Amino acid sequence: MKLILASASPRRAEILREAAIPFTVLSSAVDETPFPGESPQDHVQRLASAKAELAAARAVGPAIVIAADTVVTLEGRILGKPRSSDDARHMLETLSGRTHSVVTGVALIRLPDAEQRTFVETTLVHFDKLSEEELNRYLATDEPYDKAGAYAIQGRAGRFIPRIEGCYFNVVGLPLARLQHSLNELGWSED
Questions:
Q1: Which of 52, 72, 73, 94 could form a disulfide with 40 if both were Cys (CB 3.0 to 4.6 A apart)?
Q2: Is 191 assigned a catalytic role?
Q3: Which CB contacts under 8 angstroms, 24+ apart, belong to 12-21?
């Protein structure tokens, strides 16, 4: 049974490759605008399910489609990908010296029977207080601009994160251990 990653995220693909999990990519784009009053958990689960359903409609089984969506949240507010340098600066200033949550929704659909598994994983991330020099140096790189919350824990921003509580891979974009558990429930094996 093949695995299909319904994502164009290079970080999710890298997590699977490094874990020696074979997959193909069939990306699915959906409107990621949060609904009014939607919680971060409901938001990521809705988007992950929508991405999985779009990919499953185009995929040929037997396969398991994997889709995910990740957001950074602080005090219930979603911090998406920055739209500009000023937006990235504001996000990082907001996160500086505080603890925030990274929330990932994951949806899996087994084909051809359409059996599904979904879950939400949350990791707490402790961010150091950033100096103006550190902030300016980080903003001068390309790293903040296509990442939720304007940072990448696996990159230069890892220097600002003294500890996390929960799954590291969740912060990167795909909670690996929970994913493996769901794949096992759906009958996937590496053989």
A1: 73
A2: no
A3: 12/68, 12/172, 12/173, 12/174, 15/169, 15/172, 15/173, 15/174, 15/176, 16/174, 19/176, 20/190, 21/190
In a domain, 191, yes or no: no
pTM: 0.92
CA atoms within 13 A on the CB side of 101: 16
Q: Which amino acid is at 99?
A: T
Could you read off the pLDDT of 107-125 as tens digits, one per residue? Answer: 999 999 999 999 999 999 9
Instruction: Please give the single-letter amino acid code of residue 130.
Output: L
Q: Which helix (H) or strand (E) holds 139?
A: helix 132-139
Q: What is the DSSP letter of 156?
A: G
Q: Kindly name the residue from 69, 87, 113, 146 that is annotated as catalytic.
A: 69
Number of domains in the chain: 1
127-142 pLDDT per residue, tens: 999 999 999 999 999 9
